[in-house]
Amino acid sequence: MHTSHHHNPTSSSRLTAYVQGIGGGIARRFAQEGYTMALLTRDVANVEALRKQIEAEGGAATGIVCELGSHESIVEAFETAAALGPIEVLVLNPGYEPRRVRGAGGGPGRRDV
Predict the structure, then answer these.
(1) Is 66 within 8 Å of 73 (Cβ atoms)?
(2) What value, to the nearest 5°, has the Cα angle with vertex 77 and ends 96 and 38?
């Protein structure tokens, strides 16, 4: 059964970090609902494979390479994603738990997150 959400798919986006497994499934589902997807991962091959799959299924997606351990990379990724439209939902499900972010202050170039 297809469910309908009240949204304007041309101006709404969902953002998911880590595009394999559960994250990829979540991204595909939101794309099927008509949302533009911003896909974040540190692996260009994985993000391109999912982007192509979403587009082959009729969805819209942009792949963004992002290193979750780098403050600058995170900021750049969110700026890129925000250019697609408002970010209504953020799904963060990395396969690891980043303990520190480089360049975010709080010590010699690192801080706990």
Answers:
(1) yes
(2) 85
Nearest of 35, 37, 52, 43 to residue 18 by alpha carbon: 43
pLDDT tens digits, 26-44: 889 989 988 888 998 888 8
Strand 100-102 vs strand 110-112: parallel, antiparallel, or unpaired?
A: antiparallel
Q: For the sheet containing 13-17, what is the strand order?
A: 60-65, 36-41, 13-17, 87-92
How many domains would you assign to the chain?
1
**Does residue 48 sit in helix, strand or coil?**
helix
Q: Is residue 3 part of a domain?
A: no
Is 58:37 a contact under the CB 8 Å cutoff? no
Put simply, whether the predicted model's pTM sits higher than 0.85 gets the answer no
Is residue 8 in some structural domain? Answer: no
Compute the Cα dihedral for 74, 79, 80, 84 and give only its sign. Answer: positive
